[in-house]
Amino acid sequence: MLMYILYALVAVVVVVLVLAMTKPATFSVVRSATINASPAMLHAMINDFHAWGDWSPWEKLDPALNRTFSGAASGKGAIYEWNGNNKVGAGRMEVLDETPGSKIEIKLDFIRPFEGHNRTTFTLTPGASGTAVRWEMTGPNAFMGKVMSVFMNMNNMIGKDFEKGLANIRQAAEV
């Protein structure tokens, strides 16, 4: 009986590892919303890390969150570091590039609870009913990430936070 349990356990581990090997080497999470505000206004809200407290879905998860701002006040070269509880972890963001009213590219480094090095891009496109805001995060999907993705869907998990963040931007911008 014990041998059957051992064989079953080995089979489960093999199946998980095989499934993990079929996962892509990179990941991407994208969400979009149309917001009744100018691209310039939205660009200013996203491009200045000091303003993220008004709309970021993670900012209010830790009332004692330790924030550090350095580099440029906003835009290219602006740096935001955080260290908080288990819900927000620790990490660093830096604006790498921007096109005023159109695009913001951010280097996103997670330190805790898991190390990760990703890119986040906000793209702003004016339209008849407002500005389309596209929020995308991309990065490498290392082996442990592939194993975790067998059991959980990162697109759904992070996507929910992006949706909340876009709703918060809408609420702050459409006042």
Summed up:
The protein has 175 residues and is α+β, with helices and mostly antiparallel strands.
**Head-to-tail CA distance between termini:** 67 Å
Low-confidence stretches: none
Class, according to the CATH hierarchy?
Answer: Alpha Beta
Overall structural domain count: 1
Report the major sheet.
7 strands, antiparallel
Mean pLDDT: 90
- The helical percent reads 25-40%
Radius of gyration, taken over Cα atoms and rounded to an integer in Å: 19 Å
SS-based structural class? alpha+beta
β-sheet strand percentage? 35-45%
Q: What's the arrangement of strands in the largest beta sheet? A: 1-7-6-5-4-3-2
CATH architecture: 2-Layer Sandwich
Q: What name does the CATH topology carry?
A: Alpha-D-Glucose-1,6-Bisphosphate, Chain A, domain 4
Which word captures the global form?
elongated
The count of strands amounts to: 7
The ordered string of helix (H) and strand (E) elements is HEHEEEEEEHH
Topology:
Elements lengths: L1 H20 L4 E10 L3 H9 L18 E6 L6 E6 L6 E10 L3 E10 L3 E12 L2 E11 L2 H9 L2 H20 L2
Antiparallel strand pairs: 1-7, 2-3, 3-4, 4-5, 5-6, 6-7
